[in-house]
Design goal:
Blueprint: H1 2-37, H2 58-63, H3 69-77, H4 90-102
Helix pairs in contact: 1-4, 3-4
GO molecular function: electron transfer activity; heme binding; metal ion binding
Keywords: Heme, Iron, Metal-binding, Signal
InterPro entries: Cyt_c-like_dom, Cyt_c-like_dom_sf
Length: about 110
């Protein structure tokens, strides 16, 4: 019984850390998007538009059916046409994916 109480307490203590980590990923992704992506992409609904009409806006990417953080992060790390290779680390790609998905229209 006592072990169960400690386990529940441990699970509850972990919840705020997980939520905070997600917010930090979005913040890091926002910074990366402003530095590297905003020249071509519209990175938020209220942000100025990017200079490349062929580059989809982040809210549009986020609204795509089936868009997931894992899928976006993987796509960002693969070479693809019309986008420079920024040499993103896995963490940077995950942070950008978190920020992109945070732009999903509500």
């Amino acid at each position: 019984m006592r072990a169960m109480r400690f386990m529940r307490l441990g699970m509850l203590a972990a919840l705020p850390a997980t939520a905070w980590a997600d917010g930090e990923a979005v913040d890091r992704g926002r910074w990366l998007a402003r530095q590297w992506c905003s020249a071509c992409h519209t990175i938020a609904a209220q942000a100025p538009g990017g200079r490349n009409d062929a580059a989809p806006a982040f809210p549009t990417i986020a609204a795509r059916r089936g868009a997931t953080a894992e899928g976006i992060a993987t796509y960002l790390r693969l070479p693809h046409a019309n986008m420079p290779d920024h040499g993103l680390t896995a963490r940077q790609a995950q942070d950008l994916a978190a920020y992109i998905l945070a732009q999903r229209p509500r």
